[in-house]
Amino acid sequence: MPHTFSIDNEQLSAYLQQHVDGFIGPITLEKFSGGQSNPTYKVTAQSGVYVLRRQPPGKLLKSAHAVDREYRVLAALKGSDVPVAKVYHLCEDINIIGSMFYVMEFCDGAVYWSASLAEIHSNERRGAMYSEMNRVLAALHSVDVDAVGLSDYGKAGSYFERQLGRWVSQYHVTELQPIPAMHKLIEWLESHIPNDDGRVCLVHGDFRLDNMMFAKDSPQVIALLDWELSTLGHPFADLAYQCMQLRMPAGMGTIDGLKDIDRGSLGIPTEEEYVAQYCQRMGIDRIDNWAFYLAFSFFRLAAIAQGVAKRAAQGNASNEHANKVGSFVEPLAQMALQVIHSAK
């Protein structure tokens, strides 16, 4: 059985019986594989199956692994048009299992790792799944943050200016050797930040295919997962981030993108069509400065990859692919420069 950081099952079971309605032990725990930064477990109890998501044990950076924020946003979205798992309880007492955790429902669906949806056997279904992802994104960005109690969930306004400042300084701290393409990209981004248009909404921060669970027998998304990076931000950040993922080649990042793949032959919309669908759902005519939003997404991912490479160089990276991830920095910057060049 997978290692479970020696959680005391009996103590946890007794605690959950006290705090989760209808919960009946005993329990067995099984750790989900995959790269979640917050360890996630399947909890099988007499009363059913649940999911437990915890902070990693040990000393953490102040804002990292904020499972309490995840719990808060999931609870706030209950009953909205955004499909989320139902949450049952947040435990802030680290004495129960050694770190803060929350418990939510187990959603039994399918997760896909390739943007071409190769496992799906009809173009109609693939097209419907893309339309559904688009619907979920528009639903997320249409949430009334005041009404659901999330008006203080992040800073409002000047999102790209703040994010760019943060990631540029982060990049400079982690750069191992000069990468001219990154320097050129930073220069362009800093001189092309669009004027703040006043749009503020709940953003997911990691909106991509493999963070969505689909129903097994229909194109419906049953749960949007992994809210660790969610905050108040600008809606076009999520849209551009997803479109960036779809532009990438296979073997780079967590999902295989659609670079060099004929979307039409698969029933998958073009980027223009996908953005147009989103605009229609949001009631806007078009998106100006699209090249900036896309280029910024590539830059942010490149800066994150550089951070992983730096940790690898210091010998404390969390996975064996860290050095390989470092090799993505320059190609990502080049892709961003290509976006900028082709928009001229």
What is the mean predicted local confidence, pLDDT? 92
List the strand order in the largest sheet.
1-2-3-5-4
Structural class: alpha+beta
Biggest pleated-sheet summary: 5 strands, antiparallel
Order of helices and strands: HEEEHEEHHHEEEEHHHHH
Q: Please give the alpha-carbon distance between the first and last residues.
A: 55 Å
The general outline is: globular
- The amount of beta strand, in percent, is 5-15%
Count of extended strands: 9
Counted by DSSP, the helix tally is 10
Cα gyration radius (Å)? 21 Å
Q: List low-pLDDT spans.
A: none
Q: Portion of residues in helices? A: 25-40%
How would you characterize the overall build of this protein?
This protein is of the alpha+beta class. Helices cover 40% and strands 12% of the residues. The protein starts with 8 loop residues before the first helix and ends with a helix.
In short:
The protein has 344 residues and is α+β, with helices and mostly antiparallel strands. The chain is 40% helix and 12% strand. The N and C termini lie far apart (55 Å).
Keywords:
344 residues, two-stranded antiparallel ribbon, 10 helices, alpha+beta, globular
List the SSEs and their pairings.
Layout lengths: L8 H11 L7 E5 L8 E6 L2 E7 L12 H10 L10 E5 L9 E5 L17 H19 L17 H16 L5 H12 L9 E3 L8 E3 L6 E4 L6 E3 L1 H13 L23 H12 L7 H24 L8 H5 L2 H15 L1
Antiparallel strand pairs: 1-2, 2-3, 3-5, 4-5, 6-9, 7-8
